[in-house]
Amino acid sequence: MASSSFFCFSRIPACLSLTTLKRRSLSSRCSLFVQPPDVAQLAESARISLTSNEIEEFGPKIKQVIDWFGQLQAANLESIEPALRADTGGSDNTRADEPEIFGNREAMIAAVPSYSEPFIKVPKVLNKE
To answer: Which residues form the signal peptide (predicted)?
Structure first.
């Protein structure tokens, strides 16, 4: 699988808890394979300009990165317990997901160019719908 030009993406819904993730095998086979992206199209999406020489140069490098991810995907992780970080020592030391009130809200609102309660308006970033 390491020499393949395909990359397997695991789709993990954001609503899954750590407990649910621990029960599921993240090393199971994926059903979705994607070919490496077209470098010119990728550059356009990233809003960078590349010369034809750069496009030729980056093509194999992007394929190599995708192949590395394929190698990671193929690794057997059945015996490894999921963790948020490598140095957790088995403890879950994340903070509770609770809303916090920002102490200086007025200063933040005054610093933004356009504000319409309760939203901060920003310029459109992508041309594509």
So the answer is: none
Measured in whole angstroms, the distance separating CA 66 from the mean position of its chain's CA atoms is 14
For the segment 48-96, what is each residue's pLDDT rounded down to a tens digit?
A: 999 999 999 998 898 888 888 888 888 888 888 777 666 656 666 778 8
Which one, of 76, 63, 60, 71, lies nearest residue 8 by Cα? 71
Measured CA to CA, the distance from residue 80 to residue 56 in angstroms comes to 39
Pairing of the two strands 7-8 and 33-34:
antiparallel
Phi then psi for residue 107, to 5 deg, are -65, -40
Q: pLDDT, tens digit, for every residue of 100-121? A: 887 888 888 888 888 888 888 8
Cβ–Cβ contacts within 10 Å for residue 77, how many?
Answer: 13
What number of other Cβ atoms are within 10 A of residue 7's Cβ? Answer: 21
